[in-house]
Amino acid sequence: MKNRLEKLRKLKGIRQEELATVLEVSRQTIGSLENGRYNPSIILAFKIARFFEMSIEEIFIYEEEQIDEK
Amino acid sequence: MKNNSVGKYVALAAFGFILFVAGLALAISLPDAQGIMRTLPYICVGIGSGIFGGNVGTAIKNRHLKKDPNAAKQLEIDTNDERNVAINNKAKAKAFDLMLIVYGALMLAFALMRVDMYVVLAFVAAYLFVVFSMVYYINKYHKEM
Lengths: 70, 145
Fold this sequence. Notes:
The structure holds 2 protein chains of 2 kinds.
Chain A: E1 2-3, H1 5-12, H2 16-23, H3 27-35, H4 42-51, H5 56-59, E2 60-61
Antiparallel strand pairs in A: 1-2
Chain B: H1 7-29, H2 36-67, H3 69-80, H4 82-112, H5 117-144
Helix pairs in contact in B: 1-2, 4-5
């Protein structure tokens, strides 16, 4: 799933480590989210949305896509 | 936050060490023992060293974490991180699939080698126990989720 996390984080002027600390996840999780390698749980998605004061849909872009289960 | 007490683990490590020493002492003092006394010292040495090693490690880690609250917080985050949990669960699931294949192959090899029937039956029982555990948990989680 695509998202605007990296762009929004940079707009806020914070590092991955700082965002990770606020969201209580590892820095690697933020990296994976930004690269689109990992889709967050609904709880983490809400935490991210609340942090950026946006709705989930404004951050995560859902497209009818084929889910490639590795 | 997790319980980071040190005393409990030090006490358990001391118990493990005593068990280890008692096992060694028994093995040296009773070289011609028969029956259960022949294997008991070695069981004590094995279990004692396991308990000692594991608890000393945990005690040292907890002592370290008590001195450094930031490291403790980071460890807690890393342990509960949803991606780490998902990765661990996925790795365990893959390893379980592999284990079933390895177990099956081992059972077949033992049967072909004409190993004693009770050994093969013990393997079959363990295999079935694991498989039925999986079925049980699938049913349990179907009801819960």
